[in-house]
Model the fold of this input.
Amino acid sequence: MYRGETSLHIALIHHPVLNKKGDIIGSAVTNLDLHDIARVARTYGVSRYYIVTPYSDQQNLVREMLDHWLTGHGGQYNPARKEALNIVRVADNLEHVQENIEKRFSRKPFLVCTSARKQNCSVSYSEVKKEINSNHPVLLLFGTAHGLAPELLQRAVHVLPPITGASDYNHLSVRSAASIVIDRLLGN
Done:
């Protein structure tokens, strides 16, 4: 554990997610998602940031990037980036993430999804905040591409309400959405 660490865990899901036609796909890992979300997660005290992909080439890519920043020249050159990326883990599926959290906390995590579309089983930010403040492990899922597949949304007991602004435009990058949601849950 590090100073300021909370019981919130996040997972960036690359499969199963939707494409713009609504088909279930696997999306590619991006360097920007890895770095930017790790930095906001570490700033706010997220316990672990999981990159979830079943594809071995994508897992190897993440491990190679992490190796550069955690044990290679990148970490020596930029210790703050090393510190942020130190909370990143790779997993091939959601079940492995949940098992890892349960092993660390001796409790199943409270599973919460995010979506740009309104869902039936919404939970308020204040309710999720209460779970985090009570030290119950919370696992928050973010989807890449055009969002989490319905099977993941159905597995979650709760879905946070979509982020809305002053206009009807609603197509944030996952990095922006993660920053806003994490701030709402852990910000002062």
Remarks:
- The chain has a mean pLDDT of 96.
- Helices lie at 31-44, 56-70, 73-77, 79-85, 94-105, 125-133, 150-155, 174-186.
- Residues 47 and 102 are 13 Å apart (CA to CA).
